[in-house]
């Protein structure tokens, strides 16, 4: 069907395609309608990957027909529309052989498989979508709708939301004449955004094809990335199927890019992450410095590599070293990383490695909901965008630099993936560009400056340094004593311990409450904890835990409950509490009332500190030993202290009395013998 294009015609048609910039789809709803329609009509396949392949063909054809000035009206029949699409597809196979080769998304013999009515429906939906501006990605929206739950979220691969892609590309700022690579390119989100960024900088699609490189070990994703980038370059692209950590392609041959290590101007990537993923074999791991165990030097605080390999190394750790090896001195690295990688105690050696090899230019904290539109159900993993600039060999480790930090609260959708119209990522990009030209005159959580020598204990999480948290305390200096909890602990006025894990087999063995984080609410232990234990199990832990009236339980680990407190009353002393809870005890009530401490721990300035100082530990968040860093605002006015103490005591007494009355009423209802409380 149709005719083969001659070489001269191919060149002419390519020039026609290049006359106007290609652009993105604004309306995911159109793709959802297309997907649902095709799933019901397409004979031969209903898998989303197959449906996406047909939509990609239609996208190429629609753009091609538009550039040729072909417009359909109500006079066109489904058969005539289908004929135009099939002819356009045949010509595109000659124009873009890289997309239709044996190792590509489509093969040379393949045609558009949709029937005439389906092609007409798809054309009508694409006609209503804005395909003529550079602000969005036409392929990205389709990919997200069609295969989001199929290939994303596998082996730690999560689709990066478009606004995060745009933010990272904007701060890396790829420039004409530079070579850019994504060594974990997936379906090509960063490659596409980089290409559009370069087009906006004045590069032609032909020049872009020689500037951008992508690597991924998933052949299907490589095919998608190649097609996605070819929508812009209209030529062969440098996207390869290989393992960037092993640096071999999928048939175990040496990667053609191997000799390009250390030659790229920029790396922009979101590598796979996850503590349970086995990234490489021990032989390959041994080639990475970060594959070995590291120990801190007690005198200098610097980390020293040991001779022993670590038992397991998460892929995100090795990708840090790989990405730094790809860029030349002075080159830039933009990377999506789990916050735990740049704040967790287990990864302090990684941050030390980064600080030795590169200057940290920016660290941007993302909301926990960012990736909840990603993968099968998405992930609540808190992430950060980091921007590094590789040091020259003669550049000293101690060179001073200013780090731009921000902590976004909103990313355009909530934790269920529902759009809420509140997106702070664009504003962060604007503020960062202003920061590059002049020092910040004012700051907020969307932009503040941290000196490199102000970094504490290799912690790079932006929320740890959020100035808004400390401003709230500064406003109280005149009327309050600002007391560090760690000082109260070191002076032995306050004692802090944690609980124990008793094992699931102990659950339900008796009626004595086993108190977990979910059982702490509104300053009290809930009426009916989910799990009870036997008297014998209680006795195993009673002496060690030593729960007394006046103690305070506080959530140490978890998600949203960290910092939540409960006051132990005379009715609550016979309990066992889990390891994710602190127990705080004031040793001298004449010096500090436990009721006043409870109010201080629960007040807004302290809760803000807790949010800033809790870090992700691969699975859950934890405040950890950073509880010692909390600064408590204690009123200087003694009468005010007494009034607050009285208020808290009254609130607890009344609430607990009501709780015990409710408990007693339930027991009396069934004539269950029990002693009335007094």
Describe the structure.
The chain is an alpha+beta fold and 678 residues long. The chain is built from 20 helices and 28 strands. The strands form eight sheets. The chain has a ten-stranded mixed sheet. Strand 6 (292-296) and strand 7 form a beta hairpin. Helix 3 (48-67) packs across helix 4. The longest helix is centred in the last third of the chain and has 32 residues, at 638-669. The chain is globular and about 85 Å long. The termini are far apart. The model is unreliable at 1-5, 13-25 and 149-156 (pLDDT under 50).
How many DSSP E strands?
A: 28
Mean pLDDT: 85
Beta strand % = 15-25%
- pLDDT < 50 runs, ≥5 residues: 1-5, 13-25, 149-156
Q: What are the defining features of this structure?
A:
single chain; 678 residues; alpha+beta; 10-stranded mixed β-sheet; 4-stranded antiparallel β-sheet; 19% strand; disordered N terminus
